[in-house]
Inverse folding.
């Protein structure tokens, strides 16, 4: 008998990737960083590959090596790399690395020398996000140095890439401006003799709404897991995650009863309280206090009072609720991650990546028996 769990539908991940793949002539890199957006990196990666992805994207070297240790052999790009990492381990394990500065490129050249093979590099241009990537002023020097390193056999320039600022607003003016900078960067690279195998900039939103940004490879992330990057548009995607727990205790209380820490909620009538064993240690945002939606047997309630480390309380009124009944925070049979995001003024990405702690296990379901 389970107490609380996060269920992940691997078939939904597979089908979402298949839908994305059908909408583009570009190759698909499924982004599985952040432990697969909370869904489990390795199972999500395998489901995405089954759906037609041919690349995987992660942030850290450790994530990429974790995929390799799990036996995943598909091409992997890792892009969040601080100085001093054992990049040679990535090179030795056929992991592509992102370079956005001369310093990073130097480390990748050294890593290739240590691994005794060329480092596969994706050069990143900052087209306007002002985060990772070389500025357009620094770009020629980076490309020129990479071209020399490639001529020396130290690196292989696999890709040129960037990241959108505001693709989740499909008509936003920044999108066209960034594409102009990206094309300018590609033209500079070509003048310097660099013709990358892969040009990529499209995230989930651009994959779904901007075919002119697909180039050779698209990098969907949140859409892989069935959540839309654009509020109000679902695009036929199927959410893969359900978070739920069994009611631990119910009690009948009179009007005027204060509930949970600080008594920020007080009952207004005689009512039933239901205690659910999920809290902020399990991924429930504390700022969902008094606003987070939870469903029991199809009836939606709102968290009553503060979210605690290990539990929440629901005021279920006169609904017949008993210990052992299932309370669904989001997913099948309950509210959506978007409902939660709207309730606490955040994005659906944050909701799903919070869940899946060691004491709230992930349970995988798939017709293929994953």
């Amino acid at each position: 008998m389970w107490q609380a769990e996060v269920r992940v539908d691997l078939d939904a991940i597979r089908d979402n990737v298949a839908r994305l793949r059908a909408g583009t002539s570009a190759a698909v890199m499924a982004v599985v960083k952040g432990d697969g957006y909370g869904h489990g990196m390795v199972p999500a990666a395998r489901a995405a590959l089954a759906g037609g992805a041919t690349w995987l994207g992660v942030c850290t070297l450790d994530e990429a090596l974790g995929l390799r240790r799990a036996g995943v052999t598909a091409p992997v790009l890792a892009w969040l790399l601080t100085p001093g990492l054992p990049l040679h381990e990535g090179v030795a394990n056929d992991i592509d690395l992102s370079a956005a500065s001369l310093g990073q490129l130097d480390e990748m050249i050294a890593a290739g020398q240590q691994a005794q093979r060329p480092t596969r590099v994706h050069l990143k241009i900052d087209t306007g996000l002002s985060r990772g990537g070389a500025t357009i002023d620094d770009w020629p020097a980076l490309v020129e140095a990479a071209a020399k390193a490639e001529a020396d056999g130290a690196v292989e320039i696999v890709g040129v890439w960037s990241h959108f600022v505001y693709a989740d607003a499909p008509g936003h003016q920044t999108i066209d401006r960034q594409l102009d900078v990206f094309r300018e960067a590609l033209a500079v690279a070509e003048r310097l003799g660099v013709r990358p195998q892969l040009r990529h900039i499209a995230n989930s939103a651009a994959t779904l709404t901007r075919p002119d940004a697909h180039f050779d490879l698209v990098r969907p992330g949140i859409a892989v897991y069935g959540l839309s990057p654009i509020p109000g548009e679902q695009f036929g995607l199927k959410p893969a995650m359900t978070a739920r727990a069994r009611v631990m205790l119910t009690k009948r209380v009179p009007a005027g009863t204060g509930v949970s820490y600080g008594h920020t909620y007080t009952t207004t009538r005689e009512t039933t309280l239901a205690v659910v064993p999920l809290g902020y240690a399990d991924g429930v945002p504390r700022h969902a206090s008094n606003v987070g939606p939870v469903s029991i047997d199809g009836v939606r309630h709102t968290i009553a009072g503060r979210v605690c480390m290990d539990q929440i309380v629901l005021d279920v009124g006169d609904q017949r609720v008993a210990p052992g009944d299932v309370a669904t925070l989001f997913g099948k049979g309950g509210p959506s991650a978007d409902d939660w995001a709207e309730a606490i003024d955040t994005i659906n990405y944050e909701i799903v990546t919070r869940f899946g702690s060691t004491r709230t296990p992930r349970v995988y379901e798939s017709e293929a028996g994953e």
